[in-house]
């Protein structure tokens, strides 16, 4: 059993992760900005903790203390401007990485984005988002943590299939269900074959259970 902390649990991927971990052997805590959100997650068997990614590193460190696994699924959302994208997707991630180093977490699982290392593919409207993901990933790779970076394509709310591909060149698919991204994040927990890996994810035919075998 590990102590798993989900940053960004109130987002769509984070909620899937929380629901799928409900009833598991892991002790699950979730970082939330408002006590008003606590009841929903307590009903799923998770322990809510106040966490604001716009606070300083020490505040985040206090929130995630005693955690073994950090799963970072936070994002500012499409309804916000570039300023919030930088503050949450980049600065929030950077502070979370620093906090995870302080507590000597065993693994940091980051939900990033496909093509985060391919600036030539970034549209002007999405550039702040990709810049944030690109540099957050670089900070994580340069950290002392055993990291797993997941890079899904376009996220959908479709039911997951339980199967993916990690080779974008092998498919014409461009999307993946959030439910399946959550499944991959959970499958990566404490899997040494997932450590120090950056993994593209699209809808495919490889069972998620086979990715880290």
Q: Please, could you describe this protein's structure?
A:
The protein has 213 residues and is α/β, with parallel strands linked by helices. It contains 6 helices and 11 strands. The chain has helices spanning 12-21, 38-42, 57-64, 82-102, 127-141, 178-187, and strands spanning 3-7, 27-32, 47-50, 69-72, 107-111, 147-152, 154-156, 163-165, 175-177, 197-203, 206-207. The chain has a 9-stranded mixed sheet with strand order 3-2-1-4-5-6-10-8-11, sandwiched between helices. It has a two-stranded parallel sheet with strand order 7-9. Helix 1 links the parallel strand 1 and strand 2 (27-32). Helix 1 (12-21) packs across helix 6 (178-187), helix 3 (57-64) packs across helix 4 (82-102) and helix 4 (82-102) runs parallel beside helix 5. The longest helix is centred in the middle third of the chain and has 21 residues, at 82-102. The protein starts with a strand and ends in a 6-residue tail after the last strand.
Overview in brief:
This protein is an alpha/beta fold. It has helices spanning 12-21, 38-42, 57-64, 82-102, 127-141, 178-187; strands spanning 3-7, 27-32, 47-50, 69-72, 107-111, 147-152, 154-156, 163-165, 175-177, 197-203, 206-207.
Please provide the ordered H/E string of secondary-structure elements: EHEHEHEHEHEEEEHEE
Question: How big a fraction of the residues is strand?
Answer: 15-25%
Please count the beta strands (DSSP E, at least 2 residues each).
11
Mean pLDDT: 96
What distance separates the N and C termini?
Answer: 19 Å
**Gross morphology:** globular
Query: What is the topology, as strand order, of the major beta sheet?
Result: 3-2-1-4-5-6-10-8-11
Helix content class: 25-40%
Q: Supply the number of helical segments.
A: 6
Largest sheet: 9 strands, mixed
Radius of gyration: 16 Å
